Amino acid sequence: MMRYIRYGFLAVLGIVLVSVSLANRQMVQLQLMPDALSDLLGFNLATSLPLFLVVLGGIVAGLVIGFLWEWLREHKHRKDATVKKTEVKKLEREVKKLKKKQNEGQDDVLALLDEAS
């Protein structure tokens, strides 16, 4: 059921994006700097693009910047998780070694039963 809701949402989103794109095909001039600043510095980069590409490009750029920002912000949490995972593996090896040492003189069947618990 959730799969159909997700597909329905994506279909509606796709239709909206296509209709907005078709409605905003006119060309717009993008400039790197305002005219006054470009006159002062002596250069300016400019290009003409359809308006829908400018809008959708801005959305994509915002998403990429947001994801990158979150990934950098969560670095300490990933580092802590890695340290804890390493510590757990070390402790599991130590417990296994201690159980093996404890069961050295016992019968094999009793040692297996003790190890399983």
Shape: elongated
Low-pLDDT runs: none
- Report the count of strand segments: 2
Radius of gyration: 31 Å
Compose a concise summary of this entry.
This protein has about 120 residues and is mainly alpha-helical. It has five helices and two strands.
How does this structure look, described?
By secondary structure, the protein is mainly α. It has five helices and two strands. It has a two-stranded antiparallel ribbon with strand order 1-2. The relative contact order is 0.06. Keywords: Cell membrane, Coiled coil, Membrane, Transmembrane, Transmembrane helix.
Which features characterize this protein?
117 residues, mainly alpha, 2 domains, two-stranded antiparallel sheet, 2 strands
Present the secondary structure layout:
Elements: H1 2-23, E1 27-31, H2 35-41, E2 46-50, H3 51-73, H4 75-102, H5 108-116
Antiparallel strand pairs: 1-2
Protein name: Lipopolysaccharide assembly protein A domain-containing protein
Domain Lipopolysaccharide assembly protein A: 24-95
Keywords: Cell membrane, Coiled coil, Membrane, Transmembrane, Transmembrane helix
